[in-house]
Design a protein that fits this description.
The structure holds two protein chains of two kinds. By secondary structure, chain A is mainly β. Chain A contains no helices and nine strands. Chain A has a five-stranded mixed β-sheet, with no helix packed on it. Chain A has a four-stranded antiparallel β-sheet with strand order 2-7-6-5, with no helix packed on it. In chain A, a hairpin with a 5-residue loop joins strand 6 and strand 7. Chain A is globular. By secondary structure, chain B is mostly beta strands. Chain B is about 0% helix and about 45% strand. In chain B, the strands form two sheets. In chain B, strands 2, 4, 5, 6, 9, 10 and 11 form a seven-stranded mixed β-sheet that branches. Classes of the chains: A mainly beta, B mainly beta.
Chain lengths: ~110, ~120
Amino acid sequence: DAKTTQPNSMESNEEEPVHLPCNHSTISGTDYIHWYRQLPSQGPEYVIHGLTSNVNNRMASLAIAEDRKSSTLILHRATLRDAAVYYCILRGGFGNEKLTFGTGTRLTIIP
Amino acid sequence: EAGVAQSPRYKIIEKRQSVAFWCNPISGHATLYWYQQILGQGPKLLIQFQNNGVVDDSQLPKDRFSAERLKGVDSTLKIQPAKLEDSAVYLCASSSSRDAYNSPLHFGNGTRLTVT
């Protein structure tokens, strides 16, 4: 499975944007970049995913580097409810769609 | 839509006892997953079902763990006999089969197992 590298932890002030980085230098052409987050005492929750182009949804934006070797999850205005562990995961296509979690980035929001 | 339902929410057993967890996926989701999450780690896939067939069970400790998905809907995961290192949260997830690598997984809130 292709690997991702994320910082262990990050802090951000409430109501400010948050940029969560992810490196995936061994990504293959058919790998999608998925982001999940896990709030305390809950199961992981899907956030966003993309292949090549930047993506936006109601939760976040995903910025993908042109060479696809890195990506950034952007929370536009962090709230206390965004405090969670964020996982960046590569998910292959064509029978290789297993979701393999790493240890993620623990995001702390400072009031 | 109703989410993935899991029960029980918590379970405490002694080592060498057996335990079973139940999962009801989102209606119409053909793919079902069981993950194990040890404290401080990311979830680890144990087994993946497509309808009632096993797609991937390469990381399932088959000497003590078993899982079934009768009729392609509900699923149960069993541990017999339990060991101390099985203490973890067991998460069930489901997804639509259509365009599999694009379909997000929907997780339940898990069953926290403590083995003493």
